[in-house]
């Protein structure tokens, strides 16, 4: 009896130890589940926010593309080009998990589909920096409008034309200045009305709390963007 009692006592002590360990593990697992649930809610909330923004942009693109188009076919083509640009911007952001992306890569990705005449007709020059997802989309959509315009009416509508894209950082004023300059193309004249593309570029510049200028110089279109670094540069 004594031996059996000792054995039972040891079993009960071990069971108590095991039960305590299980409770501790359960507490840890509960905390992990709680943290995972919070992370999932955060991710779903951010995804919902981005989907709403994207759908709002798609709706505006579709509406304005057809409203300003002289025909359904041209409206469809304009909308397809803008949606393709938005898709390329999202692809770029997916590669970096919607974190900061390279400015040089963003501009190169936006212009590459329009550089199909053999030699490189876009010349990029500026320091590479990491920019926010919002800046990636704004610049990608802006450059799609500029590329579409130049292939139809500007420098890239002729074989001798080229586009120079340059940007600098003013450390003292903490601003990014970017320019698009067309050279070697036909003479350009100011349009008789403001197109949807022009209004969209102005709106995208305002989203970055910046200023844009469009100059219809005899030698070609010049686009200039001046924005605070804090609006485009990703936090370290």
Fraction of residues in β-strands: 15-25%
| Total number of strands | 7
Strand order of the largest sheet: 2-4-5-7-6
What does the oligomeric state look like here? single chain
Explain this structure.
The protein is of the alpha+beta class. Helix content is 57%, strand content 18%. The chain contains six helices and seven strands, in the order ααβαββαββαββα. It has a five-stranded mixed sheet with strand order 2-4-5-7-6. β4 and β5 form a beta hairpin. α1 runs antiparallel to α2. The mean pLDDT is 77.
Helix and strand arrangement:
Blueprint: H1 2-67, H2 72-95, E1 101-102, H3 103-111, E2 122-125, E3 130-131, H4 133-152, E4 162-170, E5 175-183, H5 196-207, E6 211-217, E7 220-228, H6 229-232
Parallel strand pairs: 2-4
Antiparallel strand pairs: 1-3, 4-5, 5-7, 6-7
Helix pairs in contact: 1-2, 2-4, 3-4, 4-5
Properties at a glance:
single chain, 236 residues, alpha+beta, 6 helices, 7 strands, elongated
What's a quick, concise take on this entry?
With 236 residues, the chain is an alpha+beta fold. The N and C termini lie far apart (71 Å). Helix 1 packs antiparallel against helix 2 and helix 2 (72-95) runs antiparallel to helix 4.
